[in-house]
Structures are given as structure tokens and as C-alpha cells.
Amino acid sequence: MRKFENQVQLAKYKVLREVSRLAMEGTLIERRHEIPKTLDPGPEARTRCCIYKERAVTEERVTTAMGGDKSNPNIIEILDAACDACPIDRFVVTEACRGCLAHRCSEACPVNAIDFVGHRAYIDQSKCIECGKCREACPYNAISDVARPCKKACKAGALSIDKEKKVVIDNEKCIQCGACVYQCPFGAIMDKSYIVDVINLLKRSKVEDVKPYAIIAPAISSQFTYAKIEQVITAIKKLGFSDVIEVALGADMVALHETKEFAENVDTKNFITSSCCPAFVEHINKNYPELKGNMSTTVSPMIAISRLIKKIDDKAKVVFIGPCTAKKMEIKQDDLVGSTDYVLTFEELTAMIDAAGIKIEECEEGLLNNASFFGRIFARTGGLADSIKHVIEEENLEADFKPISCDGLEECDKALKLAKFNKLKGNFIEGMACKGGCIGGAASLHHGPKDKKEVDKYGKLALEERVTDSLQIFEVEDINLERNYK
After folding, report:
1. Are 181 and 316 contained in the same domain?
2. Do residues 221 and 110 share a domain?
3. What is the model's pLDDT at position 242?
4. 235 occurs within a structural domain
5. Judging by DSSP bridges, how do beta strands 211-216 and 243-246 pair with one another?
6. Are residues 178 and 55 located together in one domain of the fold?
7. Count of beta carbons in the 10 Å neighbourhood of residue 43
8. If we measure between CA atoms, which residue out of 248, 253, 216 comes closest to residue 233?
9. 15: number of Cβ within 10 Å
10. Does residue 485 sit within a domain?
11. Distance (Å, whole) CA 210 – CA 191
């Protein structure tokens, strides 16, 4: 059965389901105001101070589910009514304080926020700027650090706190990875949705000459634990999609293209970074602009398969379905616009299927367009590196491939720092902003520990093992797989 990790995920799902249901009925615009009362009937509040606060939060969720603030280019938004303003003091002196003579904490504080009373240190929170220098200086580890969950999750340093103690996103630093979205205990941060656009596309396809294609990320192998992947494929088709195709086939295209790019350029560039993860690419663009020339110019698997589909069918409209919020940002990049039309998360897909009254576990097992073993393992950290090794061997390329597979943004940042100062012990950085790779994406159906072996098991179900075998019936040479970074 469908299970939810917590009440935040359930609340988000209910809003997405109701928005989907009304959009399918064609009554969303005139009836959207009914959703807060439907989901929060009252009279007693369940989680907030009052029923009116709960409904205000739900209203903001509805707005974001319908596309959010159009004037804000970021796909991650703060729900003002939902933010609890976390009234906590980040740095607090604990009982471990010995009131020592050295007073290193006080000496380290740049704003004189620490005083001593009765041989014990106290922090004046009205002065504290949360720099953490006192904690670093204390020889007894007597100062605790209680960071806000959202700020702690944001490894890009894009979140700050305003005067009202509410969180603010710096769009110049945000890489749209979505880590803050699922780490906020109040669900006060949410990704904008294309769910209404996709439903309208499916409606149009019944009366206009357009064919909607769903492309599913390889990370699907770790998502629908209560049903078979083949049943999910049938459910997606029942929504009105013409066909469902694996993004893993695009991964095969990328593996072949990126390997050749590596072999041709690594000697002159010293090292190359991957370009599959849009959050990792954005992190380089915003924090390591001097390394832009080392980024692979190969498009992501999502873009690759989208362009292949549109070459084969000029009536195609392509909707990517995966666990990634950053993909919503990727399709808006200047050099990629028009390749993939919309992005849905697995959370949004589930809400749409339920709104349509489709029971996945009762669906027949459909057929899934095939990709290779190596295309499918792109979903986990190290999958791209394994694929490149495979292509080098199969194509007999002369390339000394020494990959560094980075699991999460912190490891990515460490590798990029080493590369910046010419201390990288390798010549290829595989960057995955999410822990575990795409299977750990922000919009996954569950965020617990995931077994990477499940991805490999899914990969072994592929009819073809080699990358070139899965591509032999397609004319991929005519597909533009190059990015044009600015």
C-alpha cells in the first residue's frame, strides 16, 4: 500500500491530488478556493494554532501547485504562512561549560556576545550573529549548534534568516537541488509544479494533433515499492500518454558521447566534470566559474532522449518524470528550451494517478521501452563512471580514465576545490548533488536509505547489456548532444 514518510509529505500530496482532480474536471480556476476547506474542514486545527492558519498554508500550497509566483525565476519557493520562524537560538552554552580562565569562546566572538556569570559563559542572543567561532574555540565542546533543518540541508549556502526569523532564498546561490524542500519539518518550502500544464496537455492531445510522451528516470527502480514498474507504466499510459520511454536510453546516448568527448579533450583540459546532474552544473556555474571550461558539453540523458523522440515524431510533446526538482530549472536553460516540455516529480505523478482514480497495483503489466544495463545504472552514484569505463573498453579508446565519483554536494564541492588548485587525484569528476545519486532525489517517494543494488538489479533486467546494442536501431548521429554554455 502507498505509505507516506510524514505528515508534511501527506499534506503536499493531498494538495497535488486535489489540484489534479479539479484540473481534470476543468473546474480548477473557479473552485480552487474550496480546496483549503476540503482538506482542512475544522473546526479544530490539527497542526497549527488555528484552523485559519492551516487553511492559509494550504492556500499557499495550492498556489505553488498551480505554478507558483511567475515573477520569481526560482522553482523553489518559501510558503510564508507555513514558515514557523523557528524561534530557536542556534548556539547555546550547555552544562559542560567549566567557566575556564582562558575564556577562548569570548575572545573568539567578533561581536562581544559572550559574558560570564557565576563562572559560566552565556550568549547574548540579541548580539549573536551565528558565526560559530565560539563553538570552534571551546576546549570542552560545551557550546551546542542547533541549526535550522533547512539551513543545515542547504549545502549551497543559499538560505538566510530575515528580521522576522523567517527563511529567505538567495536565488543567486540556489542550485534548485530541493534538499531544503524535504528537510523542512513544517513543509514551508515547496517546488513549483507543472502538474496543471501536463493535465492540460493531455486534454489537448485528445482534440489536437499532438502526442504526449512520458519519459521516466532510471531512479524509478527505487520508488514504487508497492507495485511493479511495469504496472506503473500502464498507469501512466492510462493518464493519456501516447507512450512511456526510458530516460536510460538517453543515458546510453550520453555515455557514448561523453566518453568520446573525454577521450578527445582530457589531455588538453587535465580534467573534465560530468554534466548529467543540473544541480551540480549550476553549482559550478555559480561557485566555480573558472572551471566552466572543464565541464562536459554533453547534454543530460533527459535532453538527449527528448531530442531523439522529437526527431522521430514531430508531433511529440515530452514530459520527464523523476525524483529531481532541479530538472524543472534545467528545461528553462536558454540552450535547452524546447527539448523537454515539462517536468513532473514522482510525488506529482502519484497524485495525478490517484486523482484519476487509477489503482497502480491493479494495473496490468505494460511493456517498457528498453535501454542497456549501463544506461539504467545512471540512477546511482558511480553509474556514469562505470558506463564510461565500459564504452572505453568496448570502443577500444586510448584514454586513461581516472574517475572521482562524488556522492552528494559536499563531496562535489571538495573535489572542485581540489581541481581549482590543481590537486585533484583524477581526471573526471562525476558530480551527484543528491546522496546516493538520483535515487536520493528531493522529490523521491521516500527518503530512507536506498539499496544501490536495486538499481543494478533493475539494470540487469535490460535485454541489452552494452550501450551500443541499445542504440543500434536509432540514428543517434544526427541528434545534437552538445550544450552551449554562456
Report:
1. no
2. no
3. 95
4. yes
5. parallel
6. yes
7. 6
8. 216
9. 27
10. no
11. 27
Q: How far apart are CA 175 and CA 278, in angstroms?
A: 8
Question: Residue 3, class by beta-carbon neighbours within 10 Å (0-12 exposed, 13-18 middle, 19+ buried)?
Answer: exposed
Average pLDDT by consecutive 10-residue portion of the chain (486 residues)? 82 96 97 96 87 95 96 95 81 93 94 92 90 94 90 92 86 96 93 98 96 94 84 96 94 94 94 96 96 96 96 96 97 96 97 96 84 89 94 91 96 97 95 93 81 75 76 80 88
C-alpha cell at 168: 529567505
How far, in Å, CA of 47 to CA of 185, rounded?
12
Residue 242: φ, ψ to 5°:
-70, -35
Sequence length of the chain is 486
- The model's pTM: 0.90
Residue 264: CB partners within 8 Å, gap ≥ 6? none
CB-count burial class (<10 Å; 0-12, 13-18, 19+) for 95: exposed
The confidence score (pLDDT) of residue 87 equals 66
List Cα–Cα distances, 375 to 201, 205, 232, in angstroms: 28, 30, 20
CB 371 within 8 Å of CB 214:
no
In which residue are the cell numbers 533527459 written? 302
The reply to whether 312 and 442 lie within a common domain is yes
pLDDT on residue 371: 85
Give the other-Cβ count within 10 Å of 131's Cβ: 15
Q: In total, how many domains does the chain have? A: 3
Residues of the domain holding 426: 196-478
- What is the pLDDT, as a whole number, of residue 273? 97
Query: Do both 216 and 102 map to the same domain?
Result: no
* Contact (Cβ atoms closer than 8 angstroms) between residue 358 and residue 235: yes
Q: Tell me, yes or no, whether 2 lies in a domain.
A: no
Measured from the Cβ of residue 110, the count of other Cβ atoms closer than 10 Å reads: 9
Q: Which residue has the cell 567557566?
A: 99
Report d(CA 51, CA 297) in Å as an integer: 51
